Amino acid sequence: MDTHSPSPEAPPSATIGLAPPRLDLSALPPRMQRELRASHVGETVAVALYDGVAGATTDPEVLRFAASHRRVEKRHLRLFEAVLPPDKRSAPMAFWRWSGRMMGGLPAWLGPSYFYAVVAGVEAWVDGHYARQIALARKLAPDPALLNLLEACRLDERLHARDAARLDPAPLWAARALAGLAVFLSRVGVRAARWV
């Protein structure tokens, strides 16, 4: 299998043209506020993940993939920045950005199979994470604009996972192991981001 063959252009993002919801954060339950903080951290890490690729590889397909998907993650981050004022965001943002750069840079340096496996694994997990947030929002804060934001981001993350899996459908066992570690660290990061 040739993991360097040209891939189709990324499908349009579900968040193109999406306006940030106007939320009264003080009216949201504390649990939902924590979820929004975790989502802001997650999108910060995602942008940094793709930033970390640039200095770690010269593979043109990996670089193209990273640039294309970074644009979508940057849009997600801008939406969450519009919703969540700085005083409501996680405190150790420099740590989150560093973590993202490592999560993208290390697998890109190891090779395309590692990079695509990590992206596919993490983005598939993020798809499920957003699904759980949507279910919680429907129960605690059923604001249609908030639900639309979460669902649009979820659809984009699902496409990112599929794009990566399509480029390397049978990753090396070591790449799968690294992807498993990245998913575990993502779970830990989300739990921490809800509180710090």
UniProtKB/TrEMBL annotation:
Cite the annotated pathway.
Cofactor biosynthesis; ubiquinone biosynthesis
Answer whether the UniProt record assigns the keyword Iron to this protein. Answer: yes
Record's keyword terms, sorted: Iron, Membrane, Metal-binding, Monooxygenase, Oxidoreductase, Ubiquinone biosynthesis
Region entry Disordered: which residue ranges?
1-20
Q: Could you tell me which SUPFAM superfamilies the record lists for this protein?
A: Ferritin-like
Going by the entry's taxonomy, the superkingdom of the source organism is recorded as Bacteria
What's the name of the protein?
Demethoxyubiquinone hydroxylase family protein
